[in-house]
Structure formats: structure tokens, C-alpha cells
């Protein structure tokens, strides 16, 4: 607004200056005749300015005033853009820090035809394994002599180790090799028999771990099983039913680069119809293990904040800031130059009048 007042006030004085020039040019001199020629020359030099006083100064006034007004408006616009750029810098940095603190979970799936055979650790207690067979294409043959020992066609390993949570109780585990071929729908069918129990409910505990081969190759199998029991969850299946377990594998990548494995299960339970003739107090347990699908799920945290995009955006914002500052600097210099030029013209006119 100072510039507008300046331009309007400064150039409004131009008509008054021209009127003074006219008054000086119209007053006749009563001096010596030698000075008459000088006055005539002076009046002849000033008269063109007095004739242009009504047109040229007003045009110069309007053009210069409009230029100054537009310069001030542009200056304010660029200051506003600079403020917006500063806000964008702050917002960009804040968003980048927020994305670093809160990574996004990414889930991917990998299709396989053969799984690494998992290990199935059973804790049968007083129960006994009667049979174990591998079947394909979800087809299980009818039971022959249920409750009687049958064929054990699975790879098994028996092991004793101390409870990892108490370090006092000895635990007995029967480790069985799980299914591998998911394309052929391979499954493992096991039958257990419990002769008698004093408990109200009968069940067998089991847990799954990722690789049976790692267990076989481990020199310290007891420590291996203690680590598995500490890392994996355990489940149960009840007597008098056929429990069908469909497994899926989930791998999770930690921030430090480690990879953990977890099993997800879908179970279906079917009642077993006991057709044995004699009334018995024993319990039969039937369980089936099969892969649900050929996809291994991988879960990992991904930081969506891209530092290169952030750097490029900040560079563009800072470039705009510097350009705006440079334009504002040039605009101020130009207005100062215009004011100095106006003051110089005004002083020249005043000196000429005097």
C-alpha cells in the first residue's frame, strides 16, 4: 500500500508542477531589453512542457501507477506461494516420519507343488499308535479291524525331553513325518488307541513344526523339540471322532531379517460309529493331516515412504522458494529504482522552475 500511495501521491504532483511552469512562462518581464531574449527563449523552452502537462504526465502517471500496483500484487502472490511452499515442506517431512513409524503390512503368496514335509509331534500319554498310512486324492480306505494294530507306513521318531517351561517334568513325544505332495492331495491318516482313562475327557495333544528333515538332522533332538514347543502352539483332537486337519503355512519376515514360520489350521470333526460287538471302555482316536492349498503365505512389513520421492519433492519446493525470493528481491529493487527516478525528475523540474 505504501507503494500505491507513493505512486499516486508522487505523480499527482506533476500537474501542479506544470501549472507553475505555465505561470512562470506567462509572466512578462519588465527588466532590461537584454534579458528579453533570454525570457523568450526560456518561455519557448517551457511552453512545450505546459502544453504536454495535460496529456503526457497523466499517461505517465497511469502507466507507472498500474505497473506499481501489479508489482505489489505479484509480490503478495509470491509471498503467498512461499508460505504454501514452506507448509508443503513441513507436511512432507511429517508424512515421511509418520510412514517410517507405521509400516504397512504386505501379504504375498508363493505357489509350490511340494512342501517340505512338516513334523507332527504327538503327546499320546497312555495312548498307543495303531496305524499310520499315506493316502492320496482325499481317498481313505475303509477301516479293517478298528482298535487292532495295523500297518505303520509313516516315518516316526520317539523322543523324551524335559518340559521347557518347568525344566522338571519329562515329556514323551512321537514325531511323525507329515504330507508333502499338495498336487496329489497327499494326506496322513493315523489311528490311536487308549485302553482306559480315569479322566472325564480324553484328548491327545499335538504340535506342528516346519521341517521334519531338520529334526532328523539335528544332533540335539531334545533341544530341538524344546525350542519347537516354546515357539509353536499346540492343539488337541478328541477320542471317538475323526478329526480332519487342513494345514496352511505362513512365513513372517521380521524387521531384523529373521523369518518365522506359523501353521494355520482348519479342522472338521466327524463322529466315529463304533461297530465292535462288545461294549468297551477304551477310546479310539482318528486324525487326518492334509495341506489346504499349494500357496505359502509370506507376511512382511513394508515402509511406503520413498526417500527419493521425498527428496525430489523437497528440491522442487526449495527451488520454487528461491525463485519466489529472487522475484521478490527484483520487484523491490525495481520499485526503489522507479521511486529514485521519480524523485530525480521532480528535483530536476523544481530546479528548472527555480
From TrEMBL:
Record's protein name: Proton-activated chloride channel
Membrane-crossing residue ranges in chain numbering: 69-90
Localization: Cell membrane
Region: Disordered, residue numbers: 21-50
Molecular-function annotations in GO: pH-gated chloride channel activity
PANTHER family: PROTON-ACTIVATED CHLORIDE CHANNEL, TRANSMEMBRANE PROTEIN 206
Secretion signal span: none
Organism: Gallus gallus (Chicken)
Keyword entries, A-Z: Cell membrane, Chloride, Chloride channel, Ion channel, Ion transport, Membrane, Transmembrane, Transmembrane helix, Transport
Reactions it catalyzes: chloride(in) = chloride(out)
A Pfam short name: TMEM206
Amino acid at each position: 500500500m505504501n507503494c500505491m500511495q507513493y505512486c499516486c501521491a508522487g505523480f499527482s504532483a506533476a500537474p501542479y508542477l506544470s501549472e507553475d511552469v505555465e505561470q512562470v512562462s506567462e509572466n512578462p518581464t519588465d527588466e532590461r531589453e537584454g534579458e528579453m531574449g533570454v525570457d523568450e527563449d526560456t518561455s519557448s523552452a517551457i511552453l512545450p512542457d505546459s502544453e504536454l502537462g495535460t496529456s503526457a504526465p497523466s499517461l505517465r502517471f497511469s502507466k507507472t501507477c498500474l505497473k506499481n500496483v501489479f508489482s505489489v500484487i505479484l509480490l503478495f502472490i509470491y509471498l503467498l506461494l512461499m508460505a504454501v511452499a514452506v507448509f508443503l515442506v513441513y507436511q512432507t517431512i511429517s508424512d515421511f516420519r509418520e510412514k517410517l513409524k507405521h509400516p504397512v503390512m504386505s501379504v504375498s503368496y508363493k505357489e509350490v507343488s511340494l512342501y517340505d514335509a512338516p513334523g507332527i509331534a504327538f503327546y499320546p500319554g497312555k495312548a498307543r499308535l495303531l496305524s499310520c498310512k499315506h493316502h492320496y486324492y482325499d481317498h481313505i480306505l475303509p477301516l479293517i479291524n478298528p482298535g487292532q494294530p495295523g500297518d505303520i507306513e509313516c516315518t516316526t521318531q520317539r523322543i523324551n525331553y524335559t518340559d521347557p517351561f518347568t525344566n522338571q517334568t519329562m515329556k514323551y513325544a512321537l514325531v511323525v513325518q507329515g504330507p508333502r505332495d499338495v498336487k496329489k492331495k497327499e494326506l496322513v491318516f493315523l489311528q490311536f488307541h487308549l485302553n482306559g482313562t480315569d479322566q472325564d475327557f480324553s484328548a491327545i495333544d499335538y504340535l506342528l513344526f516346519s521341517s521334519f528333515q531338520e529334526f532328523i538332522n539335528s544332533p540335539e533332538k531334545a533341544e530341538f523339540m524344546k525350542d519347537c514347543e516354546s515357539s509353536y502352539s499346540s492343539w488337541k483332537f478328541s477320542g471317538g471322532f475323526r478329526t480332519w486337519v487342513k494345514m496352511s503355512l505362513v512365513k513372517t519376515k521380521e524387521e531384523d531379517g529373521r523369518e518365522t514360520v506359523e501353521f494355520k489350521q482348519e479342522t472338521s470333526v466327524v463322529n466315529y460309529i463304533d461297530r465292535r460287538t462288545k461294549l468297551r471302555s477304551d477310546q479310539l482316536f482318528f486324525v487326518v493331516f492334509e495341506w489346504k492349498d499349494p500357496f505359502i503365505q509370506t507376511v512382511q512389513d513394508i515402509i511406503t515412504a520413498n526417500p527419493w520421492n521425498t527428496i525430489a519433492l523437497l528440491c522442487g519446493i526449495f527451488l520454487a522458494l528461491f525463485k519466489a525470493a529472487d522475484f521478490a528481491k527484483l520487484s523491490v529493487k525495481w520499485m526503489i529504482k522507479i521511486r529514485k527516478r521519480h524523485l530525480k525528475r521532480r528535483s530536476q523540474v523544481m530546479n528548472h522552475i527555480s
